[in-house]
Design the sequence.
């Protein structure tokens, strides 16, 4: 799995080093803000990998990206209470649950126990 022909970990390492270099030469970001930026980048790579791998983890990866994004904005001065952050994350989780429901299919029963039921099927109404 590659992004721009490179391993994702290599790109994340490069981004972290570049950010530290920029901060050393005058970019006004604190160590906490650098950490938050790196967390968002890592979460974004997680979303990319989930899309490419098609392993069913896209919803979880998007949720982690959203959480990292909220932390980033709060770290850069967004004045949201913990309650407001929680409400936004709950709304994102609800949206993802609705979307993911359209992406998942029930497994096909493969064993005899799964294919039968001890409850007798009801006949047509009025019979």
Sequence:
């Amino acid at each position: 799995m590659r992004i721009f022909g490179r391993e994702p970990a290599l790109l994340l390492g490069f981004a972290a080093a570049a950010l530290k270099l920029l901060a050393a030469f005058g970019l006004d970001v604190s160590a906490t803000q650098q950490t938050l930026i790196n967390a968002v980048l890592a979460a974004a790579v997680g979303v990319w990998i989930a899309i490419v791998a098609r392993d069913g983890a896209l919803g979880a990866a998007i949720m982690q990206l959203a959480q990292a994004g909220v932390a980033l904005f709060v770290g850069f001065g967004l004045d949201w209470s913990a309650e407001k952050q929680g409400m936004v994350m709950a709304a994102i989780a609800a949206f993802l649950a609705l979307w993911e429901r359209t992406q998942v299919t029930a497994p096909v029963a493969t064993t005899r126990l799964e294919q039968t039921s001890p409850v007798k099927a009801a006949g047509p109404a009025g019979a």
User: Anything to note?
Assistant: The mean pLDDT is 80. The CA atoms of residues 91 and 97 lie 10 Å apart.
